[in-house]
Design a protein that fits this description.
Elements lengths: L1 E5 L4 E14 L2 E6 L5 E5 L2 E7 L4 E6 L2 E6 L2 E6 L1
Parallel strand pairs: 1-8
Antiparallel strand pairs: 1-2, 2-3, 2-5, 4-7, 5-6, 7-8
Length: 78
């Protein structure tokens, strides 16, 4: 799936991902390939990304939104 993690200042990540974890307001959300469409508010915490080469990265956010649609994931983070 294609993933973009964006802040008002810069793009933190852009590329293919195998797995994404985001800190949802109601609890953590794990997103895999072909996930159902979703829009959710995020709380402060860590976004965890495993890319297609099995490399894992973590990004700390203060909150934001996530949208999953047609195998594209966009995280708008503070």
């Amino acid at each position: 799936m294609n993933l973009e993690i964006l802040t008002p200042d810069k793009k933190l990540f852009s590329g293919d991902a195998e797995y994404v974890y985001v800190p949802g307001q109601g609890g953590g959300i794990g997103i895999l390939n072909k996930h159902a469409p979703l829009i959710a508010a995020l709380k402060a915490g860590e976004v965890k990304v495993r890319d297609i080469h099995k490399k894992e990265q973590t990004f700390t956010i203060k909150g934001g939104l996530v949208e999953v649609k047609y195998n594209n994931v966009v995280v708008l983070a503070e």
